[in-house]
User: What shape does this take?
Amino acid sequence: MRLLDLATVAFRKSTAGPRRRQGPLRTSQAMVPLPLVASREADWIDRFYVLDHKNTAVAPTDSDRLKCLNDVAISHGLPFPLKPSMPDRRLAIVTGTSSGIGEKVSRQLLQRGWEVIGISRRAVALDTPGYAHCSLDLAAVARLAAGLETQVGPRVRDRGLTRLALVNNAADVALLGQVDQLEPAGMLQAYAVNTIAPVLLMGWVLRTAPSRIPVRIVNVSSGAGVEPFPGLGAYGNTKAALRLAGMVLAAELDLRAAGGAPRDATVWSYEPGVVETPMQDAVRSSSAETVPIVQVFKDLSAQGLLRPADAPATEIVSHLEADGHPRFSEQRFLLS
Ligand SMILES: NC(=O)c1ccc[n+]([C@@H]2O[C@H](COP(=O)([O-])OP(=O)(O)OC[C@H]3O[C@@H](n4cnc5c(N)ncnc54)[C@H](OP(=O)(O)O)[C@@H]3O)[C@@H](O)[C@H]2O)c1
Assistant: This one.
């Protein structure tokens, strides 16, 4: 069954029982006037029908009811939602939950009542009922869509969801080195994990999720994706490409909205700063020949200036729970 938009959902003040199957309804049939919606909402929500693909009226699900109610509220400038009668079901897909920022994001989301699907190669000790782990190697990009479909698809298609988040956080930093030291295997691996997999994930999520629910995408970026840091060229390239892909996706969503297919989906390119995680340990333990600016990272650590991973996690979670973002936005982190 598909939920048609306000123009094609027919409402009927009939005496027929709301759950009885009706013959085809025409869109010209009376739309319930707003005062009735506002004053007799309980009555009204029991008396609308959803047209299935054969244009046959069938009883709506709870999620259909809420969607219709809120569409009417929005179209008449009423506060949204008019009456949230469904439980809030927020699902987040977070990559890289086995360590660092991704683990903290997952913990905070779970504490705030989100359901979380985490993706990483290693298992995760997040022993709460709201967490489901998906063991995937994001470097295996050719198998990614099939893995997502099997392990995550039904959860993302769930019509009871009220919000969906994708946090593209996992990254491969193994590839450090000056440009004339880079070799192809490492570059392919870093591009697969840091650019190709997150781009594929953005597309898969938008294709798969019900189009009526808000989608918040966070692409965890890096200053190295915008500034030329010696020794971080390949890593920076992967982040620069992901940042641009987010901008392009936003432009495409804008174009579709202008063509009559609006969608509440936004992309945030987010720089967490210099954060106390295993990835930062790896950068700091590089030689000056590999990363000529390695002393900067050592000094920041020695001066206690690394951010705890909970700090960027809190910023990410706040963003995921908020509305009114531009289609694409970004947060840079500049060391003063
Ligand atoms: N830490 C910083 O100072 C800093 C600064 C700027 C940006 N960032 C960005 O912040 C994000 C998180 O980094 P972090 O510092 O929290 O690093 P981290 O602690 O090393 O965590 C990296 C995560 O990525 C996952 N991952 C790596 N390769 C993977 C693969 N092939 N398949 C699936 N998962 C994979 C790891 O899981 P498995 O190994 O279990 O697969 C791990 O959970 C990254 O995007 C990073 O670029 C970090």
